[in-house]
């Protein structure tokens, strides 16, 4: 048995999220179908993050126990020959037996893409959220800085979460402008994220950008004093799992 | 009656091209359905270019005769409320009665996007053509220069064309690298293009990049001496109508 780690990219638009479901297309389902075809037997994968329906990935990480060896340099092509075109394996390597895509992860980086053109940019619409009104970027950056650090993020968690411990370390929140592309991207680097935490934080940061909240309101939101300053949950299509740190 | 000019952007993936067809979704069909809803009567549009199935546009231009005035600043929103999300009107203006989107056009700019990452970049796959092998960019630029000028492009025309005059002025062909994005873009500026001319020229330029043709072969292709140096027709999804010049 060898432990194989894959880096997987996908366009989440057509999927009901990462995690396997009996009656809906999922990324895990497609990867496990490919695995079964490649190895001729049913196999399970473990994943770093179970992205929601419609969320994309440029750097999801999964691993599985291979029942027999295949040269790792051939593995991406073997998967891509079995996968639909909106899921692509971009790297494979053999890792030590104790490696687990989820439990070994030290952190993750997510991006959220906002289209700032006057009208939605049609070739970016599947991967961005359009906000046509002007945004105060400096206020957003100031608010983002207040979210950073090791804190209890219970306020920025959607109902339906089963997290027992809601303390997370948010290493950094970046607010980056791409003027030529008329895009704004928020990058969230952290040791872990609660259910819908990135989309709720982005919703609050956008309200700061629109002048509807002050940066300091996010500190009050975090402490639980201003629950109405949390969110809304922005659409899944702007969110992308960029990278997993080990 | 006022003559209204629109700038239209679209993701062509789901459409059987620009031009109206009875039993297939087309861009023209969707625009004329929106027009009928806005003005309460059937109206026809004229378009600068009839893009093929799967081809995109960031700057298609159309015009129509409005039976009654609507303030132009409200027209894009009126259209976008009636259009599917993959077609977006980004500008409207009133133009002189003699303006015709097709016959008044002095030129057009097309782009063709090539994804050069080792594996296809999944979030770009609808808008690019993946070429994983290394490309000799300088050879491609040298070949592109040979295509420029006022010439008979009959060799770079697909069967099924009805063009009587096959002389076109190709003002400029640019080969531009985007190393960070792992993309290569070809830009074609010309006074007009024959049927599939851009995709056939791109096919030949890619063969030059792959070392399968020498730049000079394209001059021989143009003169009709080397018909086997023409094409292949690259996939529609990499092609985008960027701009129309008036």
Report on this structure.
- The structure is a homodimer of 246-residue chains.
- By secondary structure, chain A is α+β, with helices and mostly antiparallel strands.
- The first copy, chain A, folds into 2 domains: 2-95, Pseudouridine synthase I, catalytic domain, N-terminal subdomain (Alpha-Beta Plaits); 107-245, Pseudouridine synthase I, catalytic domain, C-terminal subdomain (Alpha-Beta Plaits), CATH 3.30.70.660.
- Chain A has helices at 27-39, 75-82, 137-147, 197-209, 215-222, and strands at 2-10, 46-47, 56-66, 87-95, 107-115, 129-130, 149-152, 167-178, 183-190, 239-245.
- In chain A, a hairpin with an 8-residue loop joins β2 and β3 (56-66).
- In chain A, α3 (137-147) runs parallel beside α5 (215-222).
- The longest helix of chain A is centred in the first third of the chain and has 13 residues, at 27-39.
- Chain A binds chain B through residues 9-11, 56, 58, 76, 80, 85-90, 117-123, 125-127, 240, and chain B through 9-11, 56, 58, 76, 80, 85-90, 117-123, 125-127, 240.
């Amino acid at each position: 048995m060898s432990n194989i780690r894959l880096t997987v990219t996908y366009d989440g638009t057509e999927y009901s999220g990462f995690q396997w479901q009996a009656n809906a297309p999922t990324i895990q389902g497609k990867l496990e179908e490919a695995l079964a075809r490649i190895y001729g037997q049913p196999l399970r994968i473990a994943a770093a993050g179970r992205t929601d329906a419609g969320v994309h990935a440029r750097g999801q990480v999964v691993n599985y126990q291979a029942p027999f060896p295949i040269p790792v340099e051939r593995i991406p092509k073997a998967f891509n020959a079995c996968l639909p075109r909106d899921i692509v394996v971009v790297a494979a390597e053999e890792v030590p037996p104790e490696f687990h895509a989820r439990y070994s992860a030290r952190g993750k980086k997510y991006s959220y893409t906002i289209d700032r053109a006057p009208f939605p940019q049609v070739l970016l619409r599947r991967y961005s959220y359009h906000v046509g009104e002007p945004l105060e970027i400096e206020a957003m950056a100031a608010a983002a800085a207040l979210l950073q650090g090791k804190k209890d993020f219970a306020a920025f968690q959607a109902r339906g979460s089963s997290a027992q411990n809601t303390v997370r370390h948010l290493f950094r929140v970046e607010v980056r402008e791409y003027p030529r592309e008329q895009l704004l991207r928020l990058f969230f680097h952290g040791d872990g994220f609660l259910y819908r935490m990135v989309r709720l934080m982005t919703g609050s940061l956008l309200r700061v950008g629109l002048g509807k909240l002050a940066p300091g309101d996010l500190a009050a939101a975090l402490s639980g004093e201003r629950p109405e300053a949390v969110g809304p949950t922005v659409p899944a299509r702007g969110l992308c799992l960029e990278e997993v740190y080990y």
